[in-house]
Amino acid sequence: MFEKQFPKKFSPIYIECTTLGEAWVRLIWNCFEYGRPYFIEEGSRAGQHRLTMDFACAIIIHPESRPFVPLAKPGQIVPTDEKTIEEQYFPRYVYSPLPPEPEEHYNYSEFLYPLANSIIKYYSEKSLWNAHPVMRVGDPFCFMDYFEPYDSECKRKTTPCLLGINPKIINIDKQLFMTFHVMYRSWDLFSGYLTNNGGFQLLKEFMCSEISERANIDLKPGPTVTSCVDLHLYEEDIVAASTWTNHNVENLLSFLKECRNKKTEDLYKLKNLLN
User: Fold this and answer.
1) Residues in the chain where the model's pLDDT stays below 70
2) N or C: which end of the chain has fewer CB within 10 A?
3) pTM (two decimals)
4) Which of 187, 181, 137 is nearest to 159 (CA)?
């Protein structure tokens, strides 16, 4: 029987980091230390497990630092790279006028593109000192779509993982900075966190450049805060993620495999064991 003691109480994680890469590595470490197994009953990964934190917040002081991706030592696995973030993810999934592909449930850019343009216009022409600007993602009633029948996975309605991005302009010693608060409902820590935040940082830098030019001010990209109530590692990524923390995950994987092989009628009993 797996002997690791999972948290016995609500265990939120708060960290402050210098770079995006540092935040990613430290969040992986915290997920192994304070995460709890979570059985997925519905959705595209139904029947799988993931290791998830109860809540995770990271303050990244210099998200503009390059490279976004941490430098890997031999044996360490990185899920993305600068080229992918800059040439594929940002121009297609963060800031693009193109609609989602037919097989996509949604595309962040269909929300972020028009809202970012409106916020640039607002800050440039109306006021820098206002808390109105926010880039919300998804229809606020989209959760109700889960009750709608579907005949294929690509037609299944779903709530976007990204809830929104809240920009704010602050004055630090007579220098203006734009900060981002990135909020997710559910977030793939290993495969998504670096790519997503790298793309959002590029959006922040673009917005600062546009506002600076239009309003004739010097606005620089500032810190990013990320928060999520379900920041997780999928079972398939646990070995790769452990190359950054040196955790021994053999017993954890054996335990999850044992859980996965149980009969369906035992799943509720298993969830009680896991939690």
Assistant:
1) 1-5, 150-157, 262-275
2) N
3) 0.91
4) 137
